[in-house]
Structure formats: C-alpha cells, structure tokens
Amino acid sequence: MFLKRFNRTGKVVAFTGMWIFAFGAAFNETISDVTGTPELLTSFSIPLVVIGIALLIGSNFFRKKRKR
Question: Where are the domains of the chain?
Fold first, then answer.
C-alpha cells in the first residue's frame, strides 16, 4: 500500500486530503452525477478539490527516512 512510505503525520495529512477531495468531487455537479445539491455546497466544491489535492501533494514531504 502506498501509505507505508509515510510517517504518522504524512498518513493523517494524506487521509484528510483524500476525504476532502472526495467531498469536493461529490458535491461538484460537473464531476459527479449527484444533482440537487444545495448552492452552498456547490460553491465550495472547487475549493475543496483544490485543498484536497494540495494536502495530498503536501503529504509527500512527510516521508520516512530511508535505512541504508
């Protein structure tokens, strides 16, 4: 699994980023097939997607040290 290479902080940041990205993608009407979402959630969907991607990229800085 890809989370073995992260330390504890990296795992938390990666899981948080995945969940935020998933909520942003679910509430976006152009990405998902969910219709009838409230206007407030639709307007926050793109920032949630961007924040989720930024957290996933940021989690790469929390890697375990290599043993040589």
Answer: 2-61
